[in-house]
Amino acid sequence: MTNIGIIGAxxxxxxxxxxxxxxxxxxxxxxxxxxxxxxxxxxxxxxARYTTRAEDVFADKEVEAIIICSPTPLHVEHIVAxxxxxxxxxxxxxxxxxxxxxxxxxxxxxxxxxxxMLGFNRRFDPNFAKIKKLVDEGKIGPLEQLTIxxxxxxxxxxxxxxxxxGIFKDMTIHDFDMAHYFLGDVATVTTxxxxxxxxxxxxxxxxxxxxxxxxxxxxxxxxxxxxxxxTGYDQRLExxxxxxxxxxxxxxxxxxxxxxxxxxxxxxxxxxxxLTRYATAYADELRTFLKAVKEGKELQPSxxxxxxxxxxxxxALESAKTGKTVKL
Length: 328
Fold this sequence. Notes:
Order of helices and strands: EHEHEHEHEHEHEHHHEEEEEEEHHHE
Number of helices: 12
Structural class: alpha/beta
């Protein structure tokens, strides 16, 4: 049994707390949030203690591992604190708000032997993981093209967008990691940013984008994003090579198809919430984290993977603003 502390009692903190509750050898013992009501509510829901001070989590003798769900500007500080406390940490994405902070993080971690895993949970989605395995096995020959479609049912609150780092660091960061996971090093980034939702005009952020990534071997990844999708949470992936294609389609609650006089081949709508769609991925992510910690194995995705995704995100924003291809 591994006793876990969570820093941050917001939406993603609730996601991880629920996941901990579903794993037999994991136990939530402490929740921290500057909002005492939020910390108390989450802790009481899962029979844990709570505190308003993040430093209490690092110092608590009962806490053996930490999940960092704090606001992004605090990720570097909390990763360093976990390393100083000698406690493994699973940190939510993105690694930091800007690449410059990653250099500071690496400097602060020197000599501390950190054990850190980045929360790119989509690597652990069974569908995407199966495609990656088949690509690695050469099922479709050398990967030539990767297509990732990721559209949300609706935009998050404007208050969240304002502090999130924008669509590329908050939403597309998952897709950047997935592209890097499949392609390896990314050489160029070309972005078309879109402002199509008048309700989001005053956010200063894009509400949709199409991004083209290439590597030195000529492999290409196309990422398609939108903050709104009438059909639900649109999450698809295609890997294409000279021997064929591999597809991960959208998930529905059931596989039932309806045929009547009015319509044919009608199916249930796509799942409409990221927690529902990626519930298994979150659980597998946490199991992988705990297993690697117990066995002393290397944690992946690593800090380096988080840095790569962040660099791509910053290049994507630069390309969107300038209309030029950015080289990494």
